[in-house]
Amino acid sequence: MPAATEQEILAGLGEIVEEIVGIPAGEVTPDKNFIDDLDIDSLSMVEIAVAAQDRFGVEIPDDELRNLKTVKDVIDYVQGLTGATKA
Amino acid sequence: MSRNQTTVVVTGLGATTPLGGDVPSTWSALLAGRSGVRPLDWEGVEELPVRFAAQLAVEPTEVMPKHRLRRLDRNEAIALIAAHEAWQHAGYAFGDRAGGTVDGDRLGVVISSGIGGLHTALNSYDVYREKGWQRVSPFTVPMLMPNGASGLVGIEFGAMAGSHALVSACASSAEAIGYAVDMIRSGRADVVIAGGTEACIHPLQMASFGSMRALSTRNEEPARASRPYDKNRDGFVLGEGAAVLILESEEHARARGAEIHGIASGCGYSGDAYDIVQPDPSGTGQSKAMRRALADAGLTAEDIVHVNAHGTSTPLGDVAELASIKAALGEEAAAKLCVTATKSMTGHLLGGAGALESLITVLTLRERLVPPTINVDDLDDAVDLDIVRGEPRELPDEPIAALNNSFGFGGHNVSVAFQRAV
After folding, report:
1. Is the ipTM of this complex over 0.85?
2. Which fold is adopted by the domain B8-255?
3. Which residues of B touch A18 (CB under 8 A)?
4. How confident is the model at residue B99 (pLDDT cuts 50, 70, 90)?
């Protein structure tokens, strides 16, 4: 799988969040905290993580999921594993 | 009826059924004698002994956003849809939890399902087998538990007096109505959102009810398959749907100027203690439930002008129930009342049936019109009570009362008494 750019990961994550919890993809911006800003509960975060794993071809262990608090955390985590370059 | 007891009234009605996505469309279809039974279009349906059912007229996807439906079992989604209609019908605004309407601590919920989240359980098991446990939705448990609908409705409307889910197969939601009446009488709540929901039209159910030989196999004429009291009836038709009643103490309803659609007068219960699926052929259990309903309601047999029968279209059950009605009310009173079996149109909603037929009974008394039993082409010789057929029957313009019977596998007999509000 070719490495995804930051913009591609952000767009993909936006689609996943919209699909799973109904928040418009446009509101999913790097600075947003999933729990405090987007009001996403822990069970939905598990669903989002599973969808993100499938989409970006990475593993997100439970221990790691706990550290992914903002949208940017996820983007950085995915990029770290896929070796993507900044767009 | 002059007992010193809180009167419980019906102030709101909501439903989504095989006949319509709400109460008005369901009621007009009932009066028109329309069948909600249709062929199933599933892949592989030809393998099944029964290839039709009474599926919802309006899919939940038409009224609820997709992301919300992802975490609701079908039975939960339709319970919420029916509850919203009932809540609004009662004159309450959504989100208006306190502030002059209802105190959350005085609001209860009793929503039953006989089966629960069957689709969720089976779909999640498929996901587990194909993709592993990590791909199983974290919402699986709250979607498959049979109290899910009750919990969700309680959360939706802020009900904190208690949230309950009584389970007794096809009598489940008749029990829900009875329990709600008791919650109000005992002072635990002023208002209760009460009802039932079921959505288990799935190949496994067609196979398992089919293997019991409980379902009609009239595959060539689905709309004619549910035919209580007809000589050629051959089993029930599986249906799905939800129905919700807003029950309220009369005092609370009058204080807020609510429209009163009927009186939930009382409820009677019995256990057959006979067989896990067959009703006791002597009918004593069913009769006891009806007599206890009259006693609980403070009514006499002469007050009952109508019975909405359990009447599922099974060869033995339909006529056995009529014998039980006669035994419970006496030959003379039974000869004067009229009986209908609305499952001829809606199919059998299992855990949703008691609430839907309670709702229909309330409308029947309010409108003074009994919906007909359809498909009775050739009345069974064993039928010796007045079955409403063809056209709706008009009821007298008097303070009238009716019973709604629901009997469930396990030997659960429930009869709910309603009176016309005057």
Report:
1. no
2. Peroxisomal Thiolase; Chain A, domain 1 (3.40.47)
3. 67
4. very low
